Amino acid sequence: MNQKPHKTSQLIMVWLLPLVVIGGIFVPVLGYLVFGMMVFFLVLSYFRGRFWCANYCPRGSFLDLVLSRFSLKRKIPRFLLRPLFRWAFVACFMIFFVFQIASAEKTVAGIGFVFVRMCLITTVIAVVLGIPIHQRTWCAFCPMGTLQGALGRLGPGSRKPPAPAGASRDS
Ligand code: SF4
């Protein structure tokens, strides 16, 4: 099967994933890279929707560049795409995140490690789902993707004239 040409941005950004999920185990402050990226892409999403997901996200890049070689590339189950499921997952994710922060050691390294752990757990889920289904299965309900899609619909990009028939739109 022909593979799409890799985006240069993804080839660069993909290295941040092992830096955080492996390097972060030994150097927990690397977790703040996740926090920095979150701030950046949530602001960007207001203007560009899920542009980050398609071009820069280190995990999305890993899923496209690496996991796609092992994925069975099946159709993503519809329920994972439903707004009710996706927003319920956002709520569960946020509760879990707040719980992790509340129970973490209140040091720079302790809080940094919360981000490392969250990134590690979600990456494991992405790999476990990505092989038997589709490499981007996680992205169908990733809380950060859901938030970016919602912010993008509030932003100026959503007020552009409708795209020509057949063109896809970030959501
Ligand atoms: S949906 Fe989540 S994991 Fe997927 S590309 Fe977007 S931010 Fe990254």
Helix content: 55-70%
How much of the polypeptide forms β-strand, as a percent range? under 5%
Largest sheet: none
Distance between the termini: 27 Å
* Oligomerization: single chain
Bound ligands: iron/sulfur cluster
Which term fits the overall shape? globular
Secondary-structure-based class equals mainly alpha
Question: Any overview of this molecule?
Answer:
This protein is mostly helical. It has one domain (8-156). Helix content is 63%, strand content 0%. α4 packs across α8, α4 (31-48) runs parallel beside α10 and α7 crosses α10. The two termini are 27 Å apart. The structure holds iron/sulfur cluster.
Tell me the layout of helices and strands.
Elements: H1 8-13, H2 16-21, H3 23-26, H4 31-48, H5 51-55, H6 58-65, H7 83-103, H8 108-130, H9 137-141, H10 143-154
The structure holds iron/sulfur cluster.
Keywords:
globular, 171 residues, binds iron/sulfur cluster, 63% helix, 10 helices, mainly alpha
Give a quick precis of the structure.
By secondary structure, the protein is mostly helical. It contains ten helices and no strands.
